[in-house]
Amino acid sequence: MSQDNIFREVDEELRSDRMRAFWRRFAPYVIGAAVAVVVLVAVNEGWSWYHSNNAAQSSDELYAAFDLIEGGDLPAAQTALDKVIADGSGRYPMLAEFRKAGVLAKEGKTAEAVAAYDALSSSLDNVRLRELALVLAGNLLIDSGSLADVQSRIETIATEGNPLRNAAREALGLAQYKAGDFAAAQASFEAVVNDPLSQSTTRNRMGYYLAQLLSEGAITAPGAAENAATAIDQIVSEDAPATAAEPAAAPAATPAPAAPAEPAATNETEPALE
């Protein structure tokens, strides 16, 4: 038993010596790695705090610029937006650039506003934001540019599957109408009307556009008449007061509902032609 104890003690001493030797050899690396982890965490937390603080400041400055725009002080708003663009953090400089282009348009500086939107469309990394800039530029060019100017920016956006397709189709249709290409304008407006994802307010505007084309005699296709009449009927039904809806239900209770149906359709269609 005594020999076993001696061997055990010797074995423990050897293991202890090996552990001390191992620690002396690798201790600097272990301590260095631990310090590096602590430093990295501290730097990351510090950067997050700094970034969040700057982002909050940029947000406050941007909203202050918005208040100046609402108050009509456009020169001061431009100065405030330029500061956010130069010194802001996060996405706030990009938002300030969009708003600055809008202020330029509001001041009547259409060419400068279009140039600002064009610059955004070529510099942003988000494809949807690039397309938004092109649609906004196309809208400004409806009155100040040519059909080719509008088409070069938004024609590829006015396609199925694009989230901005209906905004692009509306701008394209208005540019086609201005250029005298009424058939193309009709097609653009009807594409919006026939889109099941179109909002009711957007569909209503298309109804007005188609009704205008019909009243001018620019289009005579039956499909256009149907779309214009349907859209205007929807506008009228949405704008009509609730009390006006009660008499409309009376013909449905009469024994012969088919008789009043034809005059009703005629009366609804004729205003669209005027």
Automatic annotation (TrEMBL):
Domain of life the protein comes from: Bacteria
InterPro entries tied to this protein:
SecYEG/CpoB_TPR, TPR-like_helical_dom_sf
Where are stretches of biased composition, namely Low complexity? 240-274
Spell out where the chain crosses the membrane: 26-50
Q: Known Gene3D superfamilies for this protein?
A: Tetratricopeptide repeat domain (1.25.40.10)
Protein name (Swiss-Prot/TrEMBL)? Membrane protein
User: Keywords on this record?
Assistant: Membrane, Transmembrane, Transmembrane helix
> Where does the record place the region Disordered?
239-274
Q: Which residues form the Ancillary SecYEG translocon subunit/Cell division coordinator CpoB TPR domain?
A: 20-194
